[in-house]
Amino acid sequence: MNTKRKEILAVYEQGPEAVVTLVTTLYDIIAEQQTIIELQAARITELEERVKKLEEQLKKNSRNSSKPPSTDVFINEKPKTKSRRKKSGKKPGGQKDHPGTTLRMVDVPDEVIIHKVHKCSNCERSLEDIEVKDHEKRQVFDIPPIKLQVTEHRAEIKSCPHCGCKNKATFSEKVKQPTQYGLRLASLAVYLHDYQLLPYERSCELRADVCGCEISPATLARAEKTCFEKLEDFEQQIKNFLIESPVINCDETGMRIEGKRQWLHVASTNKMTCYYPHQKRGSEAMNAMGILPNFNGTVVHYFWKSYYKYDCDHSICNAHLLRELTSVSENDDQLWSKAMNILLLMSKNQLTIREMSGCMKPERIKEFEDWYGQIIHIGIEENPQLQAKSKKRGRTKQTTAKNLLDRFIGYKNDILRFMHDLKVPFENNLAERDVRMMKVQQKISGTFRSMQGALIFSRVRSYISTVKKNQVPVMDAIRNAIAGMPFIPTIV
């Protein structure tokens, strides 16, 4: 300290110019240090935001985000589940008076095997000539050996005795080749590949092992293409029905086609399903699908902004919102998100209370809407408007909690539409269930080699999903479709 004092006094004794030079040098050093401090502060802020973002990603799971359960990773131990469902109070297993299902004996069996009594079990005397008093019955249910049945078609050939003309009978339209596979085998090929999701090679192996017939993958592909062509009118009919429906559920998911990520779109109700693959995710694909541009009802979706380009009513999936609210509550500890979570769950439970008008009681709806407004007010206090810190163009970056709050502020009617119209579901689970098996197909096969292959699979799968929703046997429906008589749902 004394040394610095002596150095400063030495400069002072040298005169005013020496002091000015020293002070100027110190100013330059301070300015340089200040610049470094500002750069470090900016870097620290950037890294803090990055760490927060990474921590938020690590905290996301299937309960508080859209991630599937298969991606959940538990480092130490599996966390306790926090189900939103309330306990029913019922014991696990079959309930009282539940009919159940079991094998029941038939009155007329296909085959009867008699187990004879030859001698007495006590004295060992012969009972061969003794009359049978009764039988104890036991029945075994099994399938007979599966083998190909060959049906030969013969067209008569006759010569006219008067003019000598040679006449030959015509075969039916279904018999076109000297040897060919029948309708049932073709429908089985489509059933195994498009419903049970067996790849072509494994489907061929199954036929060889079970039926004893060697069929090439090309034959199976031709059967699938035939079914696709026969379902062209069905697909257009389903689209027309969906356009006329009061409510449809829509979703989109990634689909690998030709080694690239493309998109599968779905529009459905509880009676019909329509799938459509496309290179794009947004409105270009939705226009090509041909449903939403002509739809005037209510579309339920996951708040993908492309849906809002269409002039119809909208309903946002509340199950999706509940997961996002849970994430904000856990990661940002916000009161408004916890309260909004409770409100949505309570309003869902109130849907069981209906009036003749087909909606909840108006006074009950008003209570929920007033509560909704109070929660929004709390959220605004917890998330004040951020002031712009830079002169960069565009909107100021907001937190996840603020973005979610803005959605609840701007789309209140779409979030609460299920309370005003009971035809509108609380969530978009129907579309999510319809997409699920398509994702399973992607896990099995990985990718479609061509867009045409994706189109074929999507149309056939639309048909299968529709017949399943209408409790129609899939094999029979596929066989009828290949025969040119596809199932068409009845719209009530």
Give your account of this protein's structure:
Helices cover 47% and strands 8% of the residues. With 492 residues, it is of the alpha/beta class. It has a domain at 246-384 and 399-471. β4 (260-268) and β5 form a beta hairpin. The chain is elongated.
Tally of alpha and pi helices? 16
N- to C-terminal separation?
A: 96 Å
Structural class: alpha/beta
Q: Main β-sheet: number of strands, strand sense, barrel status?
A: 5 strands, mixed
Average pLDDT, to the nearest integer?
Answer: 86
Strand content: 5-15%
Unreliable spans: none
Q: What is the H/E string?
A: HHEEHHHHEEEHEEHHHHHHHHH
Shape: elongated
User: Looking across the biggest beta sheet, what order are the strands in?
Assistant: 5-4-3-6-7
Give the tally of β-strands.
7
Fraction of residues in helices? 40-55%
Radius of gyration in whole Å, from Cα? Answer: 36 Å
Explain briefly what this protein structure is:
Helices cover about 45% and strands about 10% of the residues. With about 500 residues, the protein is α/β, with parallel strands linked by helices.
